[in-house]
UniProtKB/TrEMBL annotation, chain A:
<dbReference type="InterPro" id="IPR052175">
    <property type="entry name" value="ComplexI-like_HydComp"/>
</dbReference>
<protein>
    <submittedName>
        <fullName>Formate hydrogenlyase subunit 3/Multisubunit Na+/H+ antiporter, MnhD subunit</fullName>
    </submittedName>
</protein>
<feature type="transmembrane region" description="Helical">
    <location>
        <begin position="204"/>
        <end position="229"/>
    </location>
</feature>
<feature type="transmembrane region" description="Helical">
    <location>
        <begin position="6"/>
        <end position="25"/>
    </location>
</feature>
<keyword id="KW-0560">Oxidoreductase</keyword>
<feature type="transmembrane region" description="Helical">
    <location>
        <begin position="241"/>
        <end position="258"/>
    </location>
</feature>
<feature type="transmembrane region" description="Helical">
    <location>
        <begin position="37"/>
        <end position="64"/>
    </location>
</feature>
<feature type="transmembrane region" description="Helical">
    <location>
        <begin position="161"/>
        <end position="184"/>
    </location>
</feature>
<feature type="transmembrane region" description="Helical">
    <location>
        <begin position="108"/>
        <end position="125"/>
    </location>
</feature>
From TrEMBL, chain B:
<keyword id="KW-0472">Membrane</keyword>
<feature type="transmembrane region" description="Helical">
    <location>
        <begin position="56"/>
        <end position="75"/>
    </location>
</feature>
<feature type="transmembrane region" description="Helical">
    <location>
        <begin position="119"/>
        <end position="142"/>
    </location>
</feature>
<feature type="transmembrane region" description="Helical">
    <location>
        <begin position="95"/>
        <end position="113"/>
    </location>
</feature>
<feature type="transmembrane region" description="Helical">
    <location>
        <begin position="6"/>
        <end position="22"/>
    </location>
</feature>
<dbReference type="InterPro" id="IPR038730">
    <property type="entry name" value="HyfE-like"/>
</dbReference>
<protein>
    <submittedName>
        <fullName>Hydrogenase-4 component E</fullName>
    </submittedName>
</protein>
<feature type="transmembrane region" description="Helical">
    <location>
        <begin position="149"/>
        <end position="169"/>
    </location>
</feature>
<keyword id="KW-0812">Transmembrane</keyword>
Amino acid sequence: MNLAATGMAAAVAIAVLTALLAVVVRTRTSVVGVGTALTGVAAVVAGAAALAGGSFSVVLPGVLPLSGVSLTLDPLGGLFVAVTGGVAVAAGIYSMSYADTPDLRARGVRVALPLFVVAMVLVPAAANVGTLLVCWELMALTSLVLVVAEHRRGPQVASAGRWYAVMTHLGFVSVLIGLMLFVAHTGDDSFAAMREAGRHLSPAVAGVVFVATLVGFASKAGIVPLHAWLPRAHPEAPSHVSALMSAAMVNLGVYGLVRVGVDLLGGGAAWWWLLVLALGAVSAVYGILQAAMSSDLKRLLGQSTTENMGLVLIGVGAAGLFASSGDRALAALALTAALVHVVGHAAFKTVLFLAAGSVLHATGSRDLDALGGLRPVMPVTTAAFGVGALAASALPPGTAFVSEWLLLQALIHGLPAGGVAAAIAMPVAVAAVALTAGLAVATFVKAFGVGFLAKPRSEAVAGAHESPFTMLAAMGIAAVVCVVLALWPAGILPAVQAAAGGVAVSGDVTLRLNQATGALSPLLLTLGLVAAVAVVAAVMRAAVARRVRREARLWDCGGGPMSARMEYTATSFAEPLQRVFDDVVQPELDVDVSHHEESRYLVQAVEYRRKVPDRIERRLYQPVLSVITAWGRAGRGLAPGSVHRYLGYGFYAVCGVLLLLAVTR
Amino acid sequence: MYVQLLDLACGALLLTAVLVLWRRELTVIIRMFALQGAALAVLVGVLAAQENSAELWAVAVGVFALRAVVLPYLLRRALAGAGESRRETRPLVNVSASLLAAAVLTLLAYAVSQPLVELAPSAATQAIPVGITVVLIGFFVLVTRRRALSQLVGFLLMDNGITAVGFLATTGVGLVVELGVSLDVLLAVLVLQVLTTRMRETFGDTDLDELRELRD
């Protein structure tokens, strides 16, 4: 029993024990938090051991009927197990005080938390279809319980839960269909046998399998046409659960795609990967555009998850495309970029959601237009959110910069590699990544600047207080990981290479490409930046010291001291962007101007309302929903309430079946 | 002798079921149901004599006690509180059409049970269609009669039919199973009796079609 196996066994044992403790003896909330965090630690150990080469395999035929449980931890799975574990550590510690509310102290919610974590840890370790699907479903169910944990807060929580339940189960059905079709052609549901047979599937069957599983996995990852649940469920879930879902669970969609598409089906045709690339590009741009318009802090973060998963899918799609045209080294580079982005996104999204939860905890509001002025009262949370926002916004000393830069390198160098399709797709993808990066900067400047700086915009914010120690510690851990990933990405590169190399995309990955523009050290870059800032500050100080200083109020047009109402709000900050992308987002504007009685020229009040509805959702989901509603309404005609009618249905059905039997025998 | 007695009992079963459809007086319907219970008990008794099994004799006595004495008594008590509404005045399907339907159902039962009979042809199994007919007629009563009490009789008719098929096909399904089923039926009747009384107290009537507003 090596380290990876020990870690996995420990993770499962601790999680199950914690769940049992929560259900049998009503333990304190902190015990559940510690248990979850320890589960995470064990998962990190297991994942790291697997990445270092210590993979393991175990078959427990008696546990599940028909297929049995079969677990294997290879480097690719190990990466996702480690990432999930890392997020679980922070979320577990955070929940020790965050989850100490009446709603979150409910028994079912406490049991679901460790089980959710262990289900997410087991999904990447599953080595046959049965195990994968059971763990996938366990993950969906436990997360659903957690999403609706605070259902007393309002009907929107139940609505979010319904959306999530329906979408996740439709996705599950799609994955089920794809994998069952696959297994029907291989005859064995273990991944090893499928890997052998996957190479010899006919292109048509392989294509159907790929598209069916892609639909399911993309819906879990929140990729665009199937993203509708994500901006609903992630904001309404308790914040540590949002962090787990947004930083760990969505990754498993990417895992599934890589596992089935690259590993089991062995690459496949170029059109698969062009499809993935296109979905990724659309998700990235659309997700961040929606986030830029959003003024709900957690919704903004959820929409940014769609964007980041889109970027990851661009990487995966490019990797598949390069691999199908035979360029192994570039494929490995693109896949590495995607996986580095998965790790980085997990780190900064954890920080951001935990910090948003801390704000929610202190002020009771997630509305950016009502926040502001949090820096003096919540310094640690502000610092953590600042680190997260910097990490998310693809600028040099940030985590996302590393992976997006790698991704851009792969895409740019891929230009001469493929055929006509690549020649068209690559520049478009580069443009999409660049646009996404720019909009991400604007989005996170808005979130941080409007949400945390300036003056408080409401009473609740003015009375805010810093969160308890455990919540700060959890944010601190995640923020430190973010900084480490940003400054020393080479530290995780061997691990990611092992994961990327483990899935049949062989070839050495180095950061240094042939051209001079290819080499860049984030650490040196950051040091240079810090030095430049220091020099500028020193020069400024020296210049200022020479003059006589005079304190004065800011120029305010003679309108008295500046009040919070004169500040930029999230809505007004996003207004220029909204104007630029008017045709895409199609916002609904409503301006009400009321005048004084005495004079029509004097304005009494101006009321401005803006709503940015999800256009794709309205075009795609509304028709389907209205058809289903109409169907249901038609079905009500069958149920007029008469007992005799209902009995009659049964009677005629029985007689019909008997008649059929008598006739067909 | 055995075959004739068996056929006689089965004939009585079928005849009483059809009579339940024919008559509208609830008191007569209950009497027919009691007769059917007795016929069922005779059927089991005949089988017991043929098999020479003490256990089956015990079951026969039990069936008689429950279906010919206790259940009719309970139904009559429920009826006693009913006051003037003692007739099934407006069935959803009128009596002559009901009798025609019973004939069709009998044909259907015979057509359907042929494979069952062919599995092991004997005097007992050849009577299986009668049991199935009783089940279908019971269901038909459930669908077409308005009074709660006739519904109850329909339900019990179905149960009689099922029991008859059970005995004819397997010569007894075991004392424990029979005991369990009987207790179930007894409980169901007791509960339905209470519900009927409550319905009458609330609506002044036991016409089930008045209950349309209970959906959603």
